[in-house]
Automatic annotation (TrEMBL):
GO molecular function, one term: zinc ion binding
Keywords assigned: Membrane, Metal-binding, Signal, Transferase, Transmembrane, Transmembrane helix, Ubl conjugation pathway, Zinc, Zinc-finger
Organism: Actinidia rufa
Residues annotated as signal peptide: 1-16
Annotated Wall-associated receptor kinase galacturonan-binding domain residues: 20-87
Record's subcellular location: Membrane
Known catalytic reactions: S-ubiquitinyl-[E2 ubiquitin-conjugating enzyme]-L-cysteine + [acceptor protein]-L-lysine = [E2 ubiquitin-conjugating enzyme]-L-cysteine + N(6)-ubiquitinyl-[acceptor protein]-L-lysine
Full protein name: RING-type E3 ubiquitin transferase
Length: 150
């Protein structure tokens, strides 16, 4: 009689491990495996808390961060423990206004850290600043001035 619970335990453990098979949102998307998990396609135990990814309606891989900040995952490098992100709306500075990584397990790579200052100007300025088109409109122009933090 004691052999059945042991066999059942191993069968249940084996089944639980199989449902965490690496997956993708699309054939071109990054492979998603632990510590990441894919919401609605894998059980919650397949991901480390806060490392849940999702698939967009167009099957791109999405990272949802607090304050409704969403990034498209272009690549995941499991060896270097880094992810390469892209803003799905092509306006990264707009996303940065609400970005707060202090409540997540993520941080920016210290390889390329810049200090940005944004300026809203009533007229078009010189070429010495970087124009942020996606934050500008016909009556005001947003420029970024940045320096590399060393």
């Amino acid at each position: 009689m004691p052999i059945f619970p042991i066999v059942f335990f191993f069968l249940q453990l084996s089944a639980a491990q199989n449902d965490c098979t690496p997956t993708r949102c699309s054939d071109q998307g990054p492979t998603i495996r632990y510590p990441f998990g894919l919401k609605d396609r894998q059980p919650p135990h397949c991901a480390y808390p806060g490392f849940d990814l999702s698939c967009s309606p167009t099957n791109t891989t999405i990272l949802d961060l607090p304050n409704s900040v969403k990034f498209q995952i272009k690549a995941i490098d499991y060896k270097s423990q880094s992810i390469h992100i892209k803003d799905p709306d092509n306006c990264f500075p707009k996303q940065l206004r609400d970005l707060n990584l202090s409540t997540t397990s993520f941080n920016f790579s210290d390889q390329f850290i810049y200090d940005f200052s944004l300026f809203n100007c009533p007229s078009k300025g010189r070429d010495s600043y970087y124009l942020i088109d996606c934050l500008s409109d016909g009556s005001s122009f947003v420029y970024a001035f940045y320096t590399l933090i060393t």
